[in-house]
Amino acid sequence: MNKAILTLLISFLAIHQINAQAPKSMGTSDADAKKILDEVSAKFKAYKTVQAQFVLKIENGSGKSLGSKSGNVFMKGTKYRISASGQDIFSDGSNIWTYEKAANEVTINKIDPTANSITPQKLFTNFYDKDFLYKLNGIVKEGGKNLQEIELTPIDKTKPFFKVLLYVDKSTIYTTKIFEKTGNRYTYSINNMKTNGPITDDTFIFDAKKYPGVEVVDLR
Prior knowledge:
Layout: H1 4-9, H2 31-45, E1 49-59, E2 65-76, E3 79-84, E4 87-91, E5 95-100, E6 105-110, H3 120-123, H4 128-131, E7 132-142, E8 145-154, E9 161-169, E10 172-180, E11 185-195, E12 215-218
Parallel strand pairs: 6-12
Antiparallel strand pairs: 1-2, 1-11, 2-3, 3-4, 4-5, 5-6, 7-8, 8-9, 9-10, 10-11
């Protein structure tokens, strides 16, 4: 599966897989931070559907803008759809369609139930438990809100980033900042999140009839 849009969605977080528990030698995480993150996870799991807009801004180490991306995400159970400039991804829980707009081409893959694949749902729930150490830095003001800043440090030091900052308000992550070892910074923000609204199941299935001339690459 082409993960370009998923990478945008998580602000280059590059979690990739949920794997082994943190070794004790790596230290322990902050109980206050864990309480907040657990509340975020529990709140998200309770939603029947989620629809949101996201924006990703990229800067270099000097704070110069390197561009931005925006898009929309829809989620319902294990189903999801991500739409952004140049690419759409559809998943009905069994299959994944990756549509490249410029090429008018869609690639279809079967989901491997034994693989720990990235999904948007995982990124809003307990992704933090096994791959990071985390601590609560305190309250910061952003966009007129008092947000709780949580700092995550990857246990795997080979990751391309060394720090992640989450900004949480009322058990919802509104902004994520990723700090790469190269100096680049990625800021991902959620806008206009709507929950438990009606989303039909056909939202998550690619309908070739709506894309005249589309080339279908079926890898199932």
